[in-house]
Amino acid sequence: MPRRTFKMLNRLTVLCLAAFLGTSMPALAIDCTKANDHVDKAICGNAGLKAADAAMGSAYTALLKTAPDAEIRAMLVSSQRRWVAARNEWLSSDDTSFPIAQLRKAMVDRTALLTDRSDKGFVAHAEAQRRFLAKFTGGAFSGFDTSCEFIPNDSGQTSFSYQCNGAIHVQNKERLCSLSTEFASWSLYMYHAVSTVAADQAKPVAFCGDQSGDICGEGKKGEWESAPKPDQHFPVLKAGFPKLDAEANWPLDEADETWFGQCLTSPIYPPVH
Predict the structure, then answer these.
(1) What is d(CA 241, CA 218) in angstroms, rounded to the nearest whole number?
(2) Given this model, what pLDDT does residue 184 score?
């Protein structure tokens, strides 16, 4: 299977938390007087972890105050709750001794992301996503299907990183174009998909998994498959995905941004062979 080499920066596997993650109660620092699970107790029982958690909570609170509107604030809340859920899942499945040093590093790394106010920060990414999506009509099927988890950096599982993957769906009138990523065998696999939207339903039309850099030859060499099957890694199609997600595969590289433009605006896509 063709693949694109992936430097271990971000990994994404889907945690369906959107319905659970409310926006009224931000994920603040742990209240050690109410710690009732082994992760919270471990953090509260270690001075270094407790300090790192407090710093992360302060950074998160400060970031929420910079949110320019309710939609971006809700995105930030969901993002932080997702990180906490992934952290707890990672630590609950660890059969070895509690990884104090790794957990502290994970919190320090997260704090650095929460304090980033540059064009690489969460708020800036969300605003850039808005600008990109505004180029098209949008629709119920546009959105980000992102999930994150802690995964091992090596086969020996001596260290872990928080990584995200998923799909970006962009709708323009009746055309839906999707870019999705999956991580396996230390590489990031990328897939492109085309669907049509009619009668409140999205129907798969074409799919490719070519990593050659020319997006499946732009249909010239027959790499696109029509009538794609569910087992071909075709992304999930449904209405109601979040319209913003700063931890999605963002920013788009030039080739993928160009592809979205062609896919969404060409009279016929993929091009006729």
Answers:
(1) 27
(2) 75
111 plus 176 within the same structural domain: no
Q: Whole domain around residue 149: which residue ranges?
A: 137-265
Angle at 76 between CA 108 and CA 65, to 5 degrees: 90
Residue 2, C-beta contacts closer than 8 angstroms, at least 6 positions apart:
209, 210, 211, 212
Same-domain status, 155 and 81: no
DSSP 236: P
Q: Tell me if 251 sits within 8 A of 125, measured CB to CB.
A: yes
Is residue 248 in a domain? yes
Band (pLDDT 50/70/90 cuts) for residue 258 is very high
> Which amino acid, residue 133?
L
**Are both 42 and 154 inside the same structural domain?**
no
pLDDT digits (tens, 9 = 90+) for 146-186: 999 998 888 788 889 999 999 999 999 999 999 999 887 66
